[in-house]
């Protein structure tokens, strides 16, 4: 056996590192975390004994630990080489405990997987840093206590199957509050004046009036003053300016820029970055730091001078803004600046090039700019028009990279002005006074949510991606595109000394990959804000992160933090028992229906928000109508509620085509069109209650066209395709393959059946989880003959109605098991 055993987290790393260390070393992987708190909360943490945790080896890691134990016993030295952050430190500690290693076990760290970095780490071993371990331990225990004690409150007072979390609930609150801000925004109209002047050589000069007019008549009066006016250049002012490159990437700025420039989701960015790190292409991808080592800056200098020239180099050390930046880590950068690009899949190539450009630009010279402002005199009024432009005198870092901006921000770059002279007379082509409207704050994208969380000090680099994934998976938030709406605006145009007005329409509010709160996400947020303010308080959550930092620095005992937190938190949980469940739900009475005299209200049920006509206490049963996706309980008006109640009921016949009825219906997979015995999903662009005959026929025709091309129509905006492979016939959707059942065949399968197969496979995949208790029991969600149920060891537990089995967490499964009646003992004969 080898003299030295090195344990890393990832098998991809193990293979690379083993090649660097030589024959005296064997490198093995722990495959991530090896121990965790047991699922049963009352046995996981001893609150009365300084929050002492009980850890167990995860069920899927017993074999790994057994193999590592055997290797450790036969090795002269064991080296713990997990990631260089708090989570990695905690994994090393858990490995030490699980393998029975001594307290002085050798711990090595590195921020890049290159031979020099690995060999240097071996020469500088240390012991496990228990301050870092305790910081991670405090976070884990606090999050467990919040989730384990607060989630059952949500089940009993709001709805089964809900969950709460220290960071996830705050993230949802941000999105809910932004949505309400948008809903309450009242657009204010102003008139902006823009003029275009014809210059020699078919060039055009664009100029603007610096102020906007609040009233249409004032804008029109200004245009009237300009009729017959002479326009000339009053002054030209040119000022030198410079642009400085952005710092190299931190975790959050990488996520934001990859979203803007590459269209990557946050989770995608982290997954691709992990692969780049493990293959030795970039430094560690979880960092708050913007610093580069002296060695990295020297290598960047050599590459800049080689690729661009010496005048393009300028050495900088960016100071990390975040006080919580951990342990003087480096920013994310290439391990070898000489590699401008890499081999690999398309996403790896694109992300690597983005990282390379950002890091190399940070060590390049400023871009030198000449900004020119031209003021234009109007002979008939003291008001001045202004034209601005800029010329790049020296590209500097722009030769390599320019930082992107969120789409709601205006681009600062100005067009280059044509040659102008003071006193030059200008010929007016046209002057417009166009109605513009103030805009509400933009909805969050994944990237801008990360930015907001970081600015508020909530979460850390390792938490952003899982937080966003969790709130989407829990259906508190949806990420989707939504169509805009048309809005009319007024324009007045002065041309050839005549003023003409016209009205036009524009599409506003179109959203692309934005985060929207769901009705249940809004309800849970309101409940938590009202009853558990600290849990979703921005300051409190940020302060907790600061306290974790203090623990990591050895300035605070983690048990002291837990005691201070838990006393008030647990009391709030106890107080919540008095909350009246009927007061939760956000229901509102909207008015009395003029036709029937019955009360109209809007409420939130377990299947979503709905309008109700009448009350259950009356002899006549209430009438219900679901809200549309774009409507909410908090903003629905009385008129909108009446319109929903007056919508035709589904299924409805919209007409006859080729002597066969065309029927619009709604099923568990969404609205559909039934024609000639076949079902076609109705695209989101059509409302099932208002779609007309010609539109329905067009949808059917498109579905037939897709089928002829080997498709079965669209589902979730992606075409369902069919084919036959080495494992038999299948349907393909979004790049994934779904095998047909034995009773299906390609000749007869339709869109509805294909969607059923896709949904069924997704549920099976979502239900594949097994975890271990302290008692060595396992928890499974099983699809049985009579529906899904929870299996805890040898005991079966019923899943309450309205609870989605695929969304159940382990803590929720266990709590349901605890709440279920004890199994009846078999009678003795």
Automatic annotation (TrEMBL):
Residues 3-114 form the Toprim domain. InterPro entries: Topo_IA, Topo_IA_2, Topo_IA_AS, Topo_IA_cen, Topo_IA_cen_sub1, Topo_IA_cen_sub2, Topo_IA_cen_sub3, Topo_IA_core_domain. Releases the supercoiling and torsional tension of DNA, which is introduced during the DNA replication and transcription, by transiently cleaving and rejoining one strand of the DNA duplex. Introduces a single-strand break via transesterification at a target site in duplex DNA. The scissile phosphodiester is attacked by the catalytic tyrosine of the enzyme, resulting in the formation of a DNA-(5'-phosphotyrosyl)-enzyme intermediate and the expulsion of a 3'-OH DNA strand. The free DNA strand then undergoes passage around the unbroken strand, thus removing DNA supercoils. This is DNA topoisomerase 1. Keywords: DNA-binding, Isomerase, Magnesium, Metal-binding, Topoisomerase. GO terms for molecular function: DNA binding; DNA topoisomerase type I (single strand cut, ATP-independent) activity; metal ion binding. Residues 163-168 are annotated as: Interaction with DNA. It is an enzyme of class 5 (isomerase). SUPFAM superfamilies: Prokaryotic type I DNA topoisomerase (SSF56712). It comes from Aquirufa antheringensis. The lineage of its organism: Bacteria, Pseudomonadati, Bacteroidota, Cytophagia, Cytophagales. CDD domains: TOP1Ac, TOPRIM_TopoIA_TopoI. It catalyses: ATP-independent breakage of single-stranded DNA, followed by passage and rejoining. Monomer. The active site is at 284 (o-(5'-phospho-dna)-tyrosine intermediate). Belongs to the type IA topoisomerase family. Residues 129-573 form the Topo IA-type catalytic domain. GO terms for biological process: DNA topological change. It comes from the Bacteria. It holds the Pfam family Toprim_C_rpt. The keyword Coiled coil does not apply. Its EC number is 5.6.2.1.
């Amino acid at each position: 056996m080898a003299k030295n055993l090195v344990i890393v987290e990832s098998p991809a790393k193990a293979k690379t590192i083993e090649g660097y260390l030589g024959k005296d070393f064997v490198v093995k992987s722990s495959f991530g975390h090896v121990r965790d708190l047991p699922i049963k909360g009352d046995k996981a943490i001893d609150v009365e004994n300084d929050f002492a945790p009980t850890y167990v080896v995860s069920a899927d890691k017993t074999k790994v630990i057994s193999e590592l134990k055997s290797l450790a016993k036969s090795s002269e030295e064991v080296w713990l080489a997990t990631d260089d952050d708090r989570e990695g430190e905690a994994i090393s500690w858990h490995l030490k405990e699980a393998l029975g290693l001594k307290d002085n076990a050798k711990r090595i760290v590195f921020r890049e997987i290159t031979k020099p970095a690995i060999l240097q780490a071996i020469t500088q071993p240390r012991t496990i840093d228990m301050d870092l371990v305790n910081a991670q331990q405090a976070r884990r225990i606090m999050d467990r206590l919040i989730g384990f004690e607060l989630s059952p409150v949500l089940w009993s007072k709001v709805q089964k199957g809900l969950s709460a979390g220290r960071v996830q609930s705050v993230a949802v609150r941000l999105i809910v509050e932004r949505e309400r801000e948008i809903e309450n925004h009242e657009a204010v109209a102003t008139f902006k004046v823009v003029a275009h002047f014809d210059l020699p050589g078919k060039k055009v000069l664009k100029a603007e009036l610096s102020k906007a007019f609040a009233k249409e008549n004032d804008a029109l009066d200004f245009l009237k003053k300009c009729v017959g006016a002479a326009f000339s250049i009053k002054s030209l002012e040119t000022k030198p300016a410079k642009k400085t490159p952005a710092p190299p990437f931190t975790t959050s700025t990488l996520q934001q820029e990859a979203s803007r420039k590459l269209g990557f989701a946050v989770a995608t960015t982290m997954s691709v970055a992990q692969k780049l790190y493990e293959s030795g292409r970039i430094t560690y991808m979880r960092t708050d730091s913007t610093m580069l080592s002296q060695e990295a800056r020297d290598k960047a200098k050599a590459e800049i001078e080689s690729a661009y020239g010496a005048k393009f180099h300028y050495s900088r050390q960016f100071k990390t803004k975040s006080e919580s930046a951990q342990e003087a880590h480096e920013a994310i950068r290439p391990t070898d600046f000489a590699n401008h690009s890499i081999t690999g899949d398309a996403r790896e190539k694109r992300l690597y090039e983005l990282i390379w450009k950002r890091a190399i630009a940070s060590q390049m010279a400023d871009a030198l700019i000449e900004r020119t402002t031209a003021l234009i005199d109007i002979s008939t009024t003291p008001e001045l028009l202004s034209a601005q432009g800029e010329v790049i005198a020296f590209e500097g870092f722009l030769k390599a990279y320019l930082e992107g901006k969120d789409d709601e921000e205006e681009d600062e770059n100005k067009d280059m002005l044509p040659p102008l002279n003071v006193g030059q007379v200008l010929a007016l082509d046209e002057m417009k006074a166009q109605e513009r409207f103030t805009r509400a704050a933009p909805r969050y994208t994944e990237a801008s949510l990360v930015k907001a969380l970081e600015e508020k000090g909530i979460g850390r680099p390792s938490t952003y991606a899982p937080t966003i994934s969790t709130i989407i998976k829990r259906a508190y938030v949806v990420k989707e595109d939504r169509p805009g709406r048309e809005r009319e605006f007024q324009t007045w145009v002065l041309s050839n000394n005549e003023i003409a007005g016209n009205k036009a329409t524009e599409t506003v509010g179109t959203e692309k990959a934005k985060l929207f709160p769901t009705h249940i996400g809004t309800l849970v947020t309101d409940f938590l804000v009202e009853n558990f303010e600290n849990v979703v308080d921005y300051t409190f959550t940020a302060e907790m992160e600061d306290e974790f930092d203090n623990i990591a620095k050895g300035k605070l005992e983690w048990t002291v933090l837990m005691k201070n937190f838990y006393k008030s938190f647990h009391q709030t949980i106890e107080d919540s028992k008095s909350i009246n469940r009927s007061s939760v739900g956000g229901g509102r009475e909207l008015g009395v229906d003029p036709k029937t005299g019955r009360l109209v209200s809007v409420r939130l049920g377990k299947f979503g928000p709905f309008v109700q006509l009448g009350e259950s206490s009356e002899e006549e049963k209430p009438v219900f109508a679901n809200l549309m996706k774009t409507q909410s309980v908090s903003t629905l008006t009385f008129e909108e509620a009446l319109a929903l109640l007056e919508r035709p009921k589904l299924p409805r016949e919209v007409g006859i085509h080729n002597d066969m009825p065309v029927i619009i219906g709604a099923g568990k997979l969404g609205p559909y069109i039934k024609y000639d015995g076949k079902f076609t999903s109705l695209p989101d662009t059509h409302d099932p209650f208002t779609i007309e005959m010609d539109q329905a026929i067009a949808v059917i025709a498109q579905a037939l066209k897709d089928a002829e091309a080997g498709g079965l129509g669209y589902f979730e905006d992606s075409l369902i395709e069919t084919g036959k492979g080495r494992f038999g016939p299948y349907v393909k959707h979004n790049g994934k393959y779904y095998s047909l059942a034995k009773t299906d065949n390609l000749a007869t399968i339709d869109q509805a059946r294909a969607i059923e197969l896709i949904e069924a496979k997704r549920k099976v995949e979502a239900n594949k989880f097994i975890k271990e208790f302290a008692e060595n029991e396992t928890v499974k969600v099983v699809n049985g003959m009579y529906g899904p149920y929870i299996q805890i060891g040898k005991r079966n537990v019923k899943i309450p109605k309205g609870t989605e089995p695929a969304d159940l967490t382990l803590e929720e499964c266990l709590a349901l098991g605890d709440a279920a009646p004890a199994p009846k003992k078999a009678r003795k004969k």
